[in-house]
Amino acid sequence: MKATARAHTNIALIKYWGKRDEEKILPTNNSLSLTLDGFHTTTTVTFEEDLTEDTFVLDEQPVTGEQYERVTQYLDLIRTYAGKEDLFADVYSINAVPTAAGFASSASGFAALAAAATRALDLNVTDQELSMLTRQGSGSACRSIYGGFAEWEKGERADGSDSYAVPIVPADYWDIRVAAVVLSADKKDVSSREGMKRTVDTSVFYQGWLDNIPNDLNAIKLGIKERNFEQVGQIAEANCLKMHATTLGAHPPFTYWHDTTMAVMQTVQTMRANGIPVYFTIDAGPNVKVLYLPEHEALVEQTLREAPGVSDVVLSRAGNGISYL
Ligand code: ADP
Ligand code: DP6
User: Fold this and answer.
1) Which residue has a Cα nearest atom 24 of ligand 1?
2) Whether the CB of 319 sits within 6 Å of ligand 1
């Protein structure tokens, strides 16, 4: 009863930002992402009859507290799904991605955990079922089941049975690239979960965010199908700015941006003014991801490395979905 799975992170180009049901992790809007080959989690789950509790080791360190609770509560869900409530597991995970710093470790982490746990229990799940199960660990993780571009359909049903991700085009459809600009790998002050809740509950800009989603989604999907980089980049950058604007309208107001975040945003805009098609997007953290095409890789990397406050630049191509090792 042991299995190892690898999942990559994904970067949302149309952001998931808000829940209609916090317990089942049901979102208020559809979101769309690109899976990245540069960051991943590898997780081994071993269920054993003689264990009396779950253990969780992350990056060679035994984990307790909130992060442990999240994993063991997630295993409860899988145990209930499998009808094996009395079986505990050792979870051993390696993050090839900074944890809790806005690089979507929760996405690769929960996708790898869901895949390894279901496989260890010999559950024969479809990709759709796996995406639905993964969603309940961390929302954005449900998109990491697939490679390339994926859309998480928010669904309408109260039980969440129609809320899962679907593939749009696979990784090899389009060689679009992403530079992850590392400004800070520190744990962020406001988690995505907490930040989106505060925004839904209090932001005066939240309705405006929701009203804009359908147009952004339709236009970006068309751009992806046609491999229209400018269209995809413009919509992704604007969607990111709208998401971050909602945090400024929350009570109490907050922002994920540092001064260095804004400096990188300006660097990207300057490159664009000089004729290089590049666009940024930012998740719930200070770090910036820059979309570019292969022919501009050397220039984009060098320019970003020279921007103020940049400690590293990690280049990614489109990544694949779940794999079992
Ligand atoms: P991030 O930007 O890294 O996704 P979040 O605050 O949204 O930041 O999520 C980070 C949380 O995800 C961690 O605190 C931990 O609870 C969980 N997590 C990260 N990596 C793993 C992993 N490999 N296995 C299980 N849970 C993980
Ligand atoms: C800004 O998926 O981390 O990265 O569902 O509460 O675990 P929970 O939140 P999470 O939020 C991700 C928010 C985002 C946008 C996105 O990835 O779509």
Assistant:
1) 109
2) no
Ligand nearest, relative to CA of residue 11: 2
Q: What is the pLDDT of residues 30-86, one digit of tens each?
A: 999 999 999 999 999 999 999 999 999 999 999 999 999 999 999 999 999 999 999
Instruction: Give the ligand whose atoms come closest to the C-alpha of residue 69.
Output: 1
Amino acid at 289: K
92 lines ligand 1 (CB under 6 A): no
Neighbours of 298 (CB within 10 A): 9
Minimum-distance ligand 2 atom for the alpha carbon of 152: 18
Say how far apart CA 24 and CA 255 lie, in whole Å.
26
CA torsion, ordered 165, 25, 8, 217, to nearest 10 deg: 50
Separation CA 42–CA 138 (nearest Å) = 16
Give 2-173's CATH code, choosing from 2.60.120.200, 3.40.50.720, 3.20.20.30, 3.30.230.10: 3.30.230.10
Q: For ligand 2, is residue 284 a contact (CB within 6 Å)?
A: yes
Q: Which of 120, 111, 115, 70 is nearest to 90 (CA)?
A: 120
Q: Which ligand is nearest to the CA of 285?
A: 1
Q: What is the pTM of this model?
A: 0.97
**CATH 3.30.365.10 given to domain 177-316:** no
Domain residue ranges in the chain: 2-173, 177-316
